[in-house]
Design a protein that fits this description.
Layout lengths: L4 E2 L10 H7 L15 H20 L7 E4 L2 H16 L5 E5 L4 H11 L4 E5 L9 H7 L4 E5 L13 H13 L6 E5 L11 H4 L3 E5 L10 E5 L25 H39 L3 E3 L10 E6 L4 H10 L2 E2 L15 H5 L4 H5 L1 E5 L6 H20 L2 H11 L1
Parallel strand pairs: 1-11, 3-4, 3-5, 5-6, 6-7
Antiparallel strand pairs: 2-8, 7-8, 9-10, 10-12
Helix pairs in contact: 1-8, 2-8, 3-4, 8-12, 9-12
The structure holds pyridoxal-5'-phosphate.
Length: 400
């Protein structure tokens, strides 16, 4: 059988079998509706409460500050729209970064069509926003700063702690209607997160990025932050998110969060060892590669690399034929012919942006997986470059 290696953990992760074991009873004999008064309902309610505490623990929050919903996209929608709509009498200005996931970016675009103003902060060539730009962008009518904790395409970490301190200071100075949201969908389970240190008011999470199933997520909402409801009807989640809870999904999310917390250090060590070896070997084996995004301030599991002279899509297909799964840009953007907005924001040419591949490793990635990729990748890159007239032309110029 052909070997299969999955290096697309930033897109999604398999459900951990311990997580499957935890959730299974809630699909079968413990099937109650968490809003029902009878014992079936109480059983489900207790399980949801336990999961709430587990998810809160992974970001050092209080259980009551966690709202369960369908995933990262919904969390971002509820955070951005919820804060903006609740505060529009106080101001109509949002500050965000140029490299947000579409679930924040397109919500901000939509707000702009409703007479809001949006400032998109640059990220320079390292993929990181600067506090001085946040400071300069602040206006008396700013109600929300939404900047992601870790980017999904290049893995860079944003200075949320610094921005959080700035927001607190600004609020203390009298600008009371200013809130900080961070999309931590890629970060939870891959780095230590403490909402108190970050100083954020809202933080988005998604189960399927941390070995829970797809279709469940959470939004941390600091006590005192009021959100305009986004779905009317249904009073679940203390009026913040109507709709019958996905009890099995929530139980799974809780179990996965607990595993992420207890295994975090071991996972990070494992990922760093593999990722750093992978990168060192890529540099040794393949000429003309460019690493995208800051090499230091980034998640431990991800490498975004442009292979000069090739089309990323061609390389993705070639690797897939060899059983290796990677990604170009973000999963949601693939299929579009536009180069990634993230890579463009770094100042990459369209050619280099299209030549980029995201390799994202997971807790189950092995040394042998990396060895196999290192065996296939140089050959694949070489064969595509041999067929690339522009690359060949550049090579011949270089020799002359
Ligand atoms: C940074 C980021 N935010 C939000 C999302 C959306 O999460 P979900 O797939 O749970 O809707 C993703 C998923 O790729 C992501 O990477």
């Amino acid at each position: 059988m052909k070997r299969r290696v999955y290096l697309d953990y930033s897109s999604t992760t398999p459900v951990d079998e311990r997580v499957v074991a935890a959730m299974l009873p809630f699909l079968t004999n413990k099937f109650g509706n968490a809003s029902s008064v009878h014992s079936f309902g109480q059983e489900a309610r207790a399980a949801v409460d336990r999961a709430r505490a587990q998810v809160a623990d992974v970001i050092n929050a209080r259980p009551n500050d966690i709202v369960f919903l369908s995933g990262g996209t919904e969390a971002n929608n509820l955070a951005v729209r919820g804060v903006c709509e609740m505060n529009e009498a106080r101001g109509r200005h949002i500050i965000t970064s140029a490299i947000e996931h579409s679930a924040v970016r397109e919500v901000c675009d939509a707000m702009e069509r409703h007479a809001w103003t949006v400032t998109r902060l640059p990220v320079y060539n390292n993929g990181i926003v600067r506090l001085e730009d946040v400071r300069a962008a602040l206006r008396p009518d700013t109600v929300l700063i939404t900047v992601m904790l870790a980017n999904n395409e290049i893995g860079t970490l944003q200075p949320i702690e610094e921005i959080g301190a700035f927001v607190r200071e600004t609020r203390a100075g009298g600008h009371r209607h200013l809130w900080l949201h961070t999309d931590a969908v890629q970060a939870v389970g891959r780095m230590n997160i403490d909402v108190e240190n970050l100083g954020c008011d809202l933080l988005s999470m998604s189960g399927h990025k941390l070995y829970a199933p797809k279709g469940v997520g959470g939004l941390y909402v600091r006590r005192g932050v009021r959100l305009a409801r986004q779905n009317i009807g249904g009073h679940q989640e203390r009026e913040r998110r109507g709709g019958t809870e996905s009890v099995a999904g929530i139980v799974a999310f809780g179990a996965a969060a607990e595993l992420a917390r207890t295994e975090l250090d071991a996972r990070i060590t494992h990922l760093l060892l593999l990722r750093n070896r992978f990168e060192a070997e890529v540099v040794r084996l393949i000429p003309d590669v460019i690493f995208n995004g800051d090499r230091k301030h980034r998640l431990p599991h991800l490498s975004n690399i442009s292979f000069d002279g090739i089309e990323g899509d061609g390389l993705l297909i070639n690797l897939d034929l060899n059983g290796i799964a990677v990604s170009t840009g973000s999963a949601c953007a693939s299929g579009s012919i536009e180069p990634s907005h993230v890579l463009r924001a770094l100042g990459l040419t369209d050619q280099l942006a299209r030549a980029a591949i995201r390799f994202s490793l997971g807790k189950d990635t092995t040394d042998e997986d990396v060895d196999y990729v290192l065996e296939v990748l140089p050959r694949a890159v070489k064969s595509l470059r041999d067929m690339s007239p522009t690359y060949q032309k550049r090579l011949s110029h270089a020799v002359i």
